[in-house]
Amino acid sequence: MIKKQRLLLPILDIITLGIWGILLIQYWVSGELQLLIHPNYFALVLGTGILLLVLAVLKAIQVISQLPPRNPKTMPMMQHISWFPPGWSTGLLLATAILGLLVEPKVFTSQIAIQRGVMESLTATRTQPQSFRSLSKPEARSLIEWIRTLSVYPEPDEYAGQAVNVKGFVVYPQNLSSNYLLVTRFVITCCAADAYPVSLPVKLPESRNAYKPDTWIQVKGTMMTETLQDKRQLVIDASEIETVPEPDNPYYY
């Protein structure tokens, strides 16, 4: 029994290293890594996956080379007291890796955006650009370019009358009337755990019921200023809204 246990634990280590290596490489190959982490860390994740596979192979070679002879002289084995069974932590890591292989990463939804707090600026806890100059025309700016511009030059009247053409998913603002919605994107600065939503309010000529939450839309119109919840804000006066497919990469970085 003891001999089997001494062999089982190294095999469990080998399987865990291998599965984690496969999981990280699989995320990179499938493109799902972009839903989990900033592209700056892609090479690190891929290198870690390869390293884990190499370690699994080296560990397997070590275990095979240390296999005892078929009729060894058994020595008494020292026992120690533990609250947990041997290998439980490795088993937990293995279960986590298998779960990662079985469960596909999902894109964040409007409900998560509301829970994390949609905003039209980069708060003090986020990366704050000290200066930002968009070389594109207003109508060519993406949503994140508008947000960064507003973070540096927050006076909304400066942008009134400028053309706008942005893409994002629909979030219903909780405290605005039914002819407003938020066009929203998530921004990842490091990993999905710290992703935060940014958005701009959109004023519609009719009820927002035609655009359900999480629907991806392309909004065209002009910028204007309005006082919403006692705060002057930049608002998109929508002239055209088109439902579009979710982009391959729904996040900004």
Task: Give me some keywords for this one.
253 residues; alpha/beta; 5-stranded mixed β-barrel; elongated
Structure in words:
- This protein has helices at residues 2-30, 42-65, 88-102, 110-116, 143-152, and strands at residues 163-171, 180-187, 196-203, 216-228, 231-243, 251-252.
- Helix 1 (2-30) packs antiparallel against helix 2 and helix 1 (2-30) packs parallel to helix 3 (88-102).
- It is elongated and about 85 Å long.
- The protein has 5 helices and 6 strands, in the order αααααββββββ.
- It is 34% helix and 21% strand.
- It is of the alpha/beta class and 253 residues long.
- The longest helix is centred in the first third of the chain and has 29 residues, at 2-30.
- The chain starts with a helix and ends with a strand.
- The model has no long low-confidence stretch (mean pLDDT 85).
- The protein has a 5-stranded mixed barrel with strand order 1-2-3-5-4.
Quick recap of the structure?
The chain is an alpha/beta fold.
List the helices and strands and how they pair.
Layout lengths: L1 H29 L11 H24 L22 H15 L7 H7 L26 H10 L10 E9 L8 E8 L8 E8 L12 E13 L2 E13 L7 E2 L1
Parallel strand pairs: 2-6, 3-5
Antiparallel strand pairs: 1-2, 1-4, 2-3, 4-5
Question: Radius of gyration over alpha carbons?
Answer: 26 Å
The fraction of residues assigned to DSSP E strands is: 15-25%
**What kind of oligomer do you see?**
single chain
Task: Name the overall outline.
Answer: elongated
Q: Flag low-confidence runs.
A: none
Head-to-tail CA distance between termini: 53 Å
The topology string of helices and strands comes to: HHHHHEEEEEE
| Mean pLDDT reading | 85
Global structural class? alpha/beta
